[in-house]
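agent: user wants the structure for AMP-binding enzyme C-terminal domain-containing protein from Actinokineospora soli. delegating to structure tool.
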Amino acid sequence: MQDAAVVGVPDPDYGQRFAAFVALKPGARLHATDIRDVVHAHLERFSVPRDVVFVDKVPRNATGKVVKDLLAEQV
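agent: tool returned. relaying tokens verbatim.
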């Protein structure tokens, strides 16, 4: 994995849910279930992201902070 971010996205039932955005290194292979399994092994069930989206690059602003709005639009 090269970079990742987890943001809250709207959910009709719960208000918000987690969505993970993952940028892989060139040639790397990873599946959404792998990410969910690792999170579930270390955190509570409610912390496991329902959505895992693979992106070319996690958008960041000039100061290096993740641009959450751009990510949330992709779900």
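agent: one observation worth passing along. The two ends are 20 Å apart (CA to CA).
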